[in-house]
Queue: 2 jobs
Job 1
Amino acid sequence: MKQKVILTHDNEVLFEGNPLNLPFKEASIKEKSIELFDDEDPCMIHQSHIAREFVQTLMATFKEHEVNELNLSDFKDTLDFINVPNDTLIKLKR
Amino acid sequence: MIYLDYAATTPISSEAKTALMNTLDEYPGNPSSIHTLGIAAKKKYNSTKKSVARLLGTTHKNLIFTGSGSEASNTIIKGVYAHNKSKTIVTSTIEHAATAESVEYIRSQGGSVKLCAVDSEGFIDLKALETLLNTHDVSLLTLIHSNNEIGTVQEIEKISALTKKTNTLLHLDMVQSVPHMKVPLDHSAIDFASFSAHKFYGPRGTGILYFKNKTLFQSLIHGGHQEFKKRAGTENLANIVATEVALRETIEGLETKERTIQDLGNYFLSSLNETGLDYRLNGPSYHSNARLHNIINIGFKDIQRGQLAFELDQTGICVSQGSACHEDSIKVSHVLKAIVVSEDFIHGSLRFSFSHNESTKDIDYVVKTLERIIDCEL
């Protein structure tokens, strides 16, 4: 992907890179797998598909609010699948 | 929705579906039962099998129905091995998993298996094959006739000249061949062949196994006298009847449908050329007659195929990533590795597989979408 994301918390960079490599919560992956495939133990291909679904949700959130930076605590309901502290800043970079 | 994954499966034709549903209603008996309903089912089964055999250019005495094309291939590979465990089985490096994993199983049981290399277009290295057949005591050569990922169609004449010379049995996985060509089952050198109904607009769950001589392989499934005692289990009559209908429909007007597919493929590739996207066609030249024209495997430079396929899916275009799960990783296609697709293209390779039903308008949408996604998103 052309986009990169940078996650910072308390001025510390937690993640920088391809959003597909973001740390996702195992519980969220399992929940999404059950929703999409009715499978609580997804294979790698299904896990990577789920990661793409999560990234799509993240990108849609940036687009919807027409911002390049957001605070995770403001989008806890929609972006809860990212495994970082609650008030992490997420910055979108091309 | 634009479905470009016909090599994975085809939708059942409406006539085949009707035949399936009607058979469920009209033939409730078990073909093995000796009463009115059983006898009616047996007669329907026999007449249907004769028709399938005629359509494939053989006789009903040389066919059995299986649960899938994979089961047909498993039956032959494991059945020939069980018949003579001391001999070697030879296959290629670009086989479907049904063959690749069957020979791996045989290897795990202590059997001897040798792999024959292919060239950069996926054609069997005939010199290497000749050496393998001459230097080992080979019982069976099992090959994919039309490759499911890159469309390469092997040269039966040249291969069978070698198997004849060495008295080697030849099994061809013809699962992808049937929808696109008249299969040469009357060829004297083909000993076994596998087919799958859902690749030619028939139902899932039905395969066909052709054999020249039923004494040369052992049964995989025991427990009944069905299918010459080569595949026990009550016959799936409704699926078999639907398979016959789909096969007949497929063969009718085959050449016209193939011309349409080839025109669409040419249009797709020339449209891609106009975009300036950096891509390569994996497999034989599209103008070659030794290829399936419905399968177009494209490698896009420096692109991740999974993301591209995902983005295409979001826009209503279904294509195949050609990936398989391997323990904790996603493996790059062994076929693309075998034909030595370079690193910068192999990870961006997708399989587009067409039917005769797409339009140039569909192709325009696909190409424009590809261009937009690759230029803007990836």
Note: The two ends of chain A are 9 Å apart (CA to CA).
Job 2
Amino acid sequence: MATPQSSDKIPVTVLTGYLGAGKTTLLNRILSEPHGKKFAVIVNEFGEIGIDNELVVNADEEVFEMNNGCICCTVRGDLVRIIDGLMRRKGKFDAIIVETTGLADPAPVAQTFFMDENVGAKTRLDAVVTVADAKWLKDRLKDAPEAKNQIAFADVIVLNKTDLVSADELRDVEGHIRAINPYATLHRAQRSNVAIDDVLGRNAFDLDRILDIEPKFLEADDHGHDHDHDHDHHHDHGHHHGDGHNHHGEGSGLKHYHDEDMQSVSLRSEKPLNPDKFFPWVQELVQTEGPHILRCKGILAFKDDPERFVFQGVHMILDGDHQRPWKDGEERLSRIVFIGRELPQEKIRQGFASCVA
Amino acid sequence: MSISSTAIPSLADRVRRIATATQVVGVHFFGRKPVFVLGEEHLLFADDEEKRVAVHGGGILASASDSARIVTGGDDGRLVATDAHGATSELASDDKKRWIDRVALGPDHSVAWSAGKTAHVITGKNEHRSFEAPSTVAGLAFAPRGFRLAVAHYNGASFWFPNAAAKPEFFEWKGSHLSVAISPDGRFVVTTMQEPMLHGWRIADSKHMRMSGYSARVRSMSWTADGAFLATSGSEQLILWPFDGKDGPMGRQPRLMAPSEARVTVVAAHPKQAVVATGYGDGAVWMVRVEDGALIGARQADGTPVTALGWDNSGQVLGFGTEQEAGVLTL
């Protein structure tokens, strides 16, 4: 993988997707490519297709509630144990891939990396990659809440089996995906034939690299599918597509949908924020709305603070830090994004507006 | 306040150091001869001559010992016994090659282990019994008397009587319990939890004990020789919970000793005296006297976390391991 690593923590990629979407095909493709990397693979016990890899661990997906009074604070108990055990073989693998069952919620897997200190000290969550079936995803979004969760939670979406649908149907399903999650990187694929570098080494949870997802913020804003109509569209389309990703079909032909159930809320402020107002507000928000908020991310400019503050969150868990000094001439813009279920958009909007210094 | 390493007597220069190049995950003894369990494949016999004995075809996940053997469970799905001469024998293997990640030794040469949700016992009469826990077995401990086994799992611990048809006794407490210990007098059962806390029950009446205040998940606990204290890791000092008296730690404060800037990672109580060997995340090992908190150094901090500690039965030899080396201190 081309991405430089500053830490020696083992990267973990979570591979999710509804039943039959092509997760195992993608996994076997990753393992068989001549990249010279060694993987430890954690698969669910009921996986039906063989995995050709030296280090395969069968997991019983056990979602455990934490004893902290928070019903959405769940961890994968099996992962806590397995990562502890795998670390005895440190040096025998370069990365870990966790394949979930088709019905799994990605949140407990992600939260394990924030809630368990030992797991967080030895490994880092790289990205949640969701494989979706171009032909059947639309139906699953209607009848399977798990499928919608997996799309909403994803950093990378592999839209698979595009050869089974027409160009029109493909734009249609992409429109439905974007209505739920405008921020994930979307790759079209057939038989899961996506480039390995597009799914591994993404650093999607690395605070220091939230910079890298800026084009995603802007790009989503450009297309206006984030239901945020407060800001002016002054960004130029052209230069946001130079980030090396592969955004097929995201031009003017993309259909716009509104998902009744799952939305994203994107907010921005050109005025600096007051940290003494912002932190109590965002903590209160995730305390009360945490079960509904799947993911959140933000880049913030505080008044009289020479440094950018970045944060991200999963349900009620927030993780944030100063990232780097604002550059000379850089626009000190605060941006914040929530993806979730039935989010109280107006309440969030007003709350954020009241954090202005 | 922290330990100032200059003012405290140290025996660190008397330690025999052995480079392992891999992490040490356990320490056991045959008599006074230490044997280190390495993270992968081997036991390291650290007699005058060092020798490595291959026991597993991968990671070694759990180990336990009595005077005659060291029993290890591996990610190769095998349960292996090794004797004092380094001869190995396979006691069991998992038919699906699942990890064997918990092992305990009991009376009359009985052995217990677990793979997934199933706890197994081979009795002293070589009979095999098993118990299906409601979730993955996360801890196994034999009771000091009678043929009973505590099994930790999600939402509590079960007391299993492998020789009886009776249903296991269930001690309930919500949450994920990751290891279990029974007090030497057999009156209390204590688990470590996913959260930075312990939970305990008085066995006679299932009365609850919550022991919290840690800065991290507790990964190591050890009863002092007289059973009066449970020594635990998980904080930037040694935490000792009082288990003397009929109510154990209920309504009482723990003793806090040997504060440091680094967190305690492993504890091992001396087998005869009220002394606890305490290993830290910065590599330091101190022997802490429970009576007054007096310290003697056994290893200086060097930034490599202590990963294993153990005493021989006589209490004359302390063995310890880090992610890179093993050490032996003969008192």
Note: Residues 1-6, 212-252 of chain A have pLDDT under 50 and may be disordered.
